[in-house]
Structure formats: structure tokens, C-alpha cells
Write a structure and sequence with these properties.
disordered N terminus, globular, about 40% helix, 10-stranded mixed sheet, alpha/beta, two-stranded antiparallel sheet
Amino acid sequence: MPIPRKSMALTAGVLAGTTLVVTVCAVGGAAASQPGSAKGRNTSAPVLPARFTQQKIQWTACGADVTPKAVPGAECGWVKVPVDYAAPDGKTVKLRVSRVRAKDHSHRLGSLLYNPGGPGAGGAADVADGNWRAGTQARGRYDLVGFDPRGMAGSGQIKCPDGVPQQPENPPRTEAQAEKVFADATKRGQACQRASGAVFAHMDSVSVARDLDVLRTVLGDAKLNYTGFSYGTFLGQQYMKLFPDKVGRMVLDSVVNPAADMQQVARRDVKTSDDAMRRYARDLVARGDDRLGATSGEIVRRVTGFAKKLERKPLRGADGEEFTDDALSMYLNTAVTDEASWKPLTKALVAALHGDGTAFERFDKETAGGSGGEKPTPQEEQAEEDESSSMPAVLCLDSPSAPKSPKAMLDTADAFAKQSPLFGRSFAWQMIDCATWPVAPTGAAEPVKASGAPPVLLVSYTDDTQTPLANAQAVHRQLAHSSLLVRKGHGHAAYAPSENPSTCTDRAVDRYLVGGKLPDKVANCPR
């Protein structure tokens, strides 16, 4: 029976939200970058050969390798960067870039670079096919520039012929089981390293931030104007740390907290799933549905007890495969954070509690649109596979805290399970890829102060299950001169989404990007 696997809750996505208009104050922001503006000197940046800093992008029409449906005027090209900035005369990697020119070219403010997060997602296709277009005002005044970060999409793709290490469907309970999982994951990580080449050891966000500065220089911008979503906010913060005097107008939307290490992020995700489970239970009670219990507490206890029963005696599906407590945990983790799945989830839980081992097979068909739903295209399937390969290559270098032995992982999983009997163990074992990754981490979990950088704009939904509002609030405290714009509602990536746009949010962000006017220190877009 297939089991949904949720990644480390740092992926970019666009969910539902609501809008109204917020009043914002005109506060002086950073000046937008324009060709010919004064350039500052940054002593933290390496001195690069002119073949990098003075290269010219040969812009051509975007081909089908980028997107089969490019918007009119979209252009694509390549920018070459060093694989290792400590050895810029060594190997190089080509970054695929795309551009859609400013609609009001006579009043152009420069380039606005875009990163969709992941990590593992490329941004070149999103700009070339119009999937990301910024707000109306920003689109008029900036050249929108997407890029595929090193090792992602078209930029020297990380390759994992045997697949990347993944959370086991049945997390180990014994040291012997854990040792086997570690051995298998180690082999898969080593296969990724052999197939990917030199860039594999230089996928960290600090290297990508240096790539951003090469892109800024080659595009002719004195300052970096940037919009990053989800993990793209972590990348933006690394740029601020390295090049504070090169920061222009920067929007960090759905914020990652750089001071939280991998285990802290995983524990936060456990709490997020527990909270979502309680919301689901409260909704059942509010609607008068007592099939799982009369109170929200009773519902949670009954489902938790069912999981413990499955640990001892799994159900059998139609094909004879076992439906275990770990399978239940993964289904719950996916469903309780998506209100559209609550009705079929209840149906499946009621049936499973009565001994039906095929209940979640039917749940799969119903929630995946098994009767007439659109199947992903081959290109979409390939993009998802590529992202799953690139994600650990970044995360495992950026965060140092994954358990490094079978015993340590078992102990961590036990501690997580005490925090949450339903979700803890599964989330702990999501760290198996970084626990066995063949390259040691180079990053550190620490706040970014970005002393000397101009004020930047942080954006967050009130209810974001992937990057909670608490992240944005923490980073707002770390960046003394930042402003925080909060959009009421549930979702991920609040600015200029392709669906459910917010006039309030888009206008406030555009006012900053175009006019340099930041909102109040903390401003709100109410429902």
C-alpha cells in the first residue's frame, strides 16, 4: 500500500488564503538597484576572476527544456559560477536563468530575482511560463528573473540513481533494524555523490548566496532586489549576512528561521501536526459528527489508541500488505493539515476502526482524484523527482544536528514519540537522509543579524503549517530593522500567489518593492 511521504516542512507551495485592505505607513526603505548606481565594497566576498563578473548572458527564446509554454517575451540563458568559491579557478557550473522584461521599461528599477524555495525547486521555469509574476506594480517596473540554483533543475542537476535516503515506511524499533536502515541509506547517499560530481559537496546555501551575487553583477544591478519564498528566505538571509551592503529591496515570504536546527524544525513540525489533529477533532465535534468520539479529546485518544493497537497487530489490505501504525501516522500527517481531506479521512478512520484494512486505499483514490482527477505530466513527475534529489543535498550541508548513529537515531525517535505518540517517531526518521549523508555539514544554526543591511520585508500567513508565523516573528526580532506583514488565513507563500491572491498583501509588498515604503513594524491584512 503506497504511503504519502511528507518532506521536511520547508517546501514552497501555494495554499488558500483570504484578503482585505491594510493601512500601511510610508517608511523609508532601501533604494532599488539601478544600473549606474554607486557600488559599495564588501570585504567578505571572494575576489573572482573577470570571466565570472564580466560575462554576458546570451539571451534567447526559452526552449521546451525550460518550459513548453513560455509567456510572450520570456528569455533564457546561462551564467557560469565556480563550483568552489575557495578555488574559483577550478570547476564551474552553469546556472540556468530566465527573464521577463519590465512592462514599463522606461521606468525600469532593475532586476527582481525570484527563488521558490524547496530547497530543490528551480525558479527559471516559474518566471518563463508566468507561474510567478510578482504583483502588478512590481511586474511593471522590474525585469523578473528566475534561476535554477546549482544542482537543481537545469543547473547541474544532482543525480541519485538509487534514489535518495528516505524515511522508512516502518521506522525501526530495534538497533538491528536501525543498523540496516542506516546501511541502506548510506549506500544510496554515496551513489548520489558518485553520480553528481564536484557540485555535490558545494550545495550549501552560502555557495548559492554567492551565486546570487554573481547573478546580480552580471545583470548589471548595484543592489540585489530579491523575493524568496519558504527556503528561499533562508537563502536571502545568507545573502544579507555575506553582502549586507549589496542588499536592495528584499521580500522574505513564509519565513525559515536560521537559528533553528534540523531537530528543532522536526519537533516544531510534530507540534504543528498535533495541533492540526486537534483542529480536525474540534471540527468534527462542532459539526455534530460523533462517529470517532463525543469530544475532541476523546477523538484524539481513540485515534492514538488505534495506532498503538496497529503497532501490535496491523490490519491487512486487499493485496495482503499490512496497514501499520506508521502508515496511519503518515496518512494522518498529510490529511489533518489539509481541510479538504477531512471528510474522506473521517470515512477512512471509521472504516479502519471497524477492521477494514482497505479503508485508506479508498482514501488514496478519493483524495488523489481517482475518478477523473488530472494525473501529473511526465515533466511534473520529473521535476518532483529532481527536487527530492536536490533537497537533502542542501539541507544536509546547511544543518548540523541530525543524529549520526543508529543508536542516536533510535533514542531521538523515542524522545519524539514521547512528545507525540501519533507523529513523533515518523518525523524523527525523516532525518535519515542527513544522518547518513556522505558530506559533512558546513552550516550552523544561528540567527542572522545582517548588521549594515537596509530594512527588509517579512511576510507570513497567520496559519502556515510549513513555515509557521512564529518563524517570521523570530526572524523579525533578529533583524532589527525589518517589517513584518501578516496575512490572515491558512496558506504558504502569501505574496502574489497564482491562486487566491490578496489585494492587501500584494499592494503592500509592491509599495515596498516599487517605492521603498515599508509597512508598519508589524502590519496585518485581516480576513
